[in-house]
Amino acid sequence: MARRGEDTMRYGPMKPVGLFDARLGDFKENKDKRPYAVVQLRQEDKAGQLWNMVGFQTNLRWGEQKRVFQMIPGLEHAEFVRMGVMHRNTFINSPELLNASLQFRSRRTLLAAGQLSGTEGYTARSRGGGVAGTNAARIALGLDPLVLPVTTMMGALFDFITSADPKHFQPMAPNFGILPPLPVRIKTKQERYGVYRDRSFEDLERFLAGVRSLVGV
User: Fold this and answer.
1) How many domains does the chain have?
2) Residues 26 and 118 placed together within one structural domain of the fold
3) Distance (Å, rounded) from C-alpha 75 to C-alpha 73?
4) Mind listing the pLDDT tens digit for each residue in 189-207?
């Protein structure tokens, strides 16, 4: 990543967007003093002695990692108990195997969710587990499984991972690009995202009302 240019990291895993050192005083008067890049540390133990450097997966040799990481201000004397390694996500070819209900097409009583199904991000994975668990319970009760409206973010995500090109399928995170287009063109991003949100809420409420009426709630 560093070979791509000095700005690569500041717009990647070390982007400083939204961060400002309060010790510098007024934000507007000290824009030029904003951090160039930052390292996010995530606490890994109760005592606060073990911290994870977020986003530092690398193929660098361990000795070189230590040399480079100790160049970061504040980490000059850090002890590294586990070095960074590259990892691969394991996932199934969902477009060939799953329905949008997260059921396997060849075995409707078997469901998949989380990273295995090809969804990226903690929220998406947990929501997938919620939908798969709900549908497993509905199947056990003799009810039809739920398929979320495609105009909702999770409905669009489940639709994507189960209908994408199987030959080139890769995991996907929730994003506005997978939502169905709006009927009218809206220029400003903030307003456009608001319309996406409102449409999602309206369609989800209609969907849930229909589900409640079917079960007599």
Assistant:
1) 2
2) no
3) 6
4) 899 999 999 999 999 999 9
